[in-house]
Design brief:
This protein is of the alpha/beta class. The protein is built from five helices and eleven strands. The strands form two sheets. It has a six-stranded antiparallel beta barrel.
Length: 250
Amino acid sequence: MAGIYQLTVVSNESLTPSMRRVVLTGSDLESFPAAQESGYVKLELTDAEGSRVMRSYTIRAFDPQTQRLLLDFVDHGDAGPASAWARHVQPGESITIRGPGEPKRVDPSADWFLIAGDLSALPAIATNLEGLRRDAQGYVFIEIPDPADQQSIDAPPGMTVRWILNADPTCPNKPLLEALEAQAWLPGTPYPWFAGEFEGMRRARRYLRDQRGIDKRAMYLSCYWKLGDTDEGMKRAKRADAEADSRTPA
């Protein structure tokens, strides 16, 4: 996360009822590395108390030729500093970002792929699907709160994409995990990839590791948020969970 970039907002648009896209540009992007989609950058923001906070967001796309960086945000209204910024920021305003962080990609050598997540993971899921070989096989489960939140994704024809509706904000990832666990598996070795709410991530890990026998080093699992907690609280819980999991045999 060594790079610091002073950027300007080019545009801010609503993609679906629950997601927004902010496009950034600036001469600092001349030194921004290419092929970092599904990685992340940290935005320097100000919270409601006026304190500086950092928030991480997935790189949806970056074009070195036009120096355009695309970031997609889940629209929570003004509930948090990042969502509030994304909802109200106007073209011409400036923002400082840091990064990029490591891309979160599937293992391309797998026989097939099992990808799942909620809206917070949708940008990373989309970039993974767009980067897969065109003969890739597998299943994708994406949890959305509104049918209108479906997006067009250039997935390989053999990747079956299912949009899982969950309009209950108190039970994040529940129908998503139910669909994931009910899915019959293809022959061969899969690469599972899951990102979403903290407890959903833990349930996915138990299913994939304990019931399906997937080595924890042969899959990607991450929480991008935690129900009822701040971003800082989520990160503390994530670190504690990672430490506990590291003591569990692969």
